[in-house]
Amino acid sequence: IGINSQPSLAILYSVPYADFRLDYDLTQPLTWIETNFTGTLDGNGRTLSVNRNLFKGVYGSRGDTPPENGGPDIEANLAKGYIYSLNIVVTGEITTGVLGSVYGGTVKTVKLTGDASAYLRIYGGLSSNTGGLINTLRGNAYVYGCFTNLPVNITTADANNIGGLIGHLNAEKARIENCGSNADISSDATLPNVGSLIGGISANEGKLLNCFAAGKVQRGGHIAIGNKLANHLVENLYWSLKDTNPANQATVLPVNNISESDSVIEWKFDEGDFGFVPTDGGVNSIHLTVPPSVT
After folding, report:
1. Beta-strand relationship, 19-22 and 40-42
2. In what order do the strands lie in the sheet with 166-169?
3. What are the backbone angles phi and psi of residue 217, rounded to the nearest 5°?
4. C-alpha to C-alpha distance for 77 and 66, rounded to whole angstroms
5. 3-state class of 157 per DSSP?
6. Is the pTM of this model over 0.85?
7. Is the dihedral of CA 90, 91, 95, 99 positive or negative?
8. Whole-angstrom Cα distance, residue 232 to residue 257?
């Protein structure tokens, strides 16, 4: 079903279990109703401007076998709760993840940015488990190729699991792959479970693979992942200090509770060609495909 006008956007929340395609750049109407999304949405590379979250949750049908490196997937995995190839621009203040929580769904190549006034506001205890794109990840969810640079502002001491991209990963079989965050997080209080990429991981299994984090995180959080259980595998996580002055960036550690099996690497971001150069002065370097908004 093609969506080609602002009024026709309402079909996303009024028709369940259907396949949609965004045909034009559109703006979320003020009359938007937040519901659970159970269909598929092909963003078609288009931009959707939003002034609040799109959905309460995304409910999918994935089995427990993720594709490798974003490759071909099983058709049944994508039958519902599948959102891909979408640019989301936030206009103003939001108070919860744009997609809500994802339960066994699939989110691929979704980019979250904002205008000059946009940010995620965390202002009370009910704001725990909140991320800019996704609040909580549950079930056999799969997130691939997603990015955010939407700032986060925390004005409460009661919040827990706050992330620039994802607030809380609580899924034994979920996988997050080739994702990144340049989201800055400011806070009035010292909160440990805060990270530019993910606030907290409470699953004993699962994998985070080939991701990066470069947001400036203040007051007790961590640059990439606020906290995780030791058994959850983090593989090839690249991180960088946006501000080397400790007075401006209190956080200098990428992940709380790193285990020996994790591979977490500090790199400097070369703004010219987005190369990553080892901070130890070594000759080895790699080049990752990252969004051009990373600076």
Report:
1. parallel
2. 35-37, 55-59, 101-103, 134-138, 166-169, 198-201, 225-228
3. -120, 125
4. 9
5. coil
6. yes
7. negative
8. 10
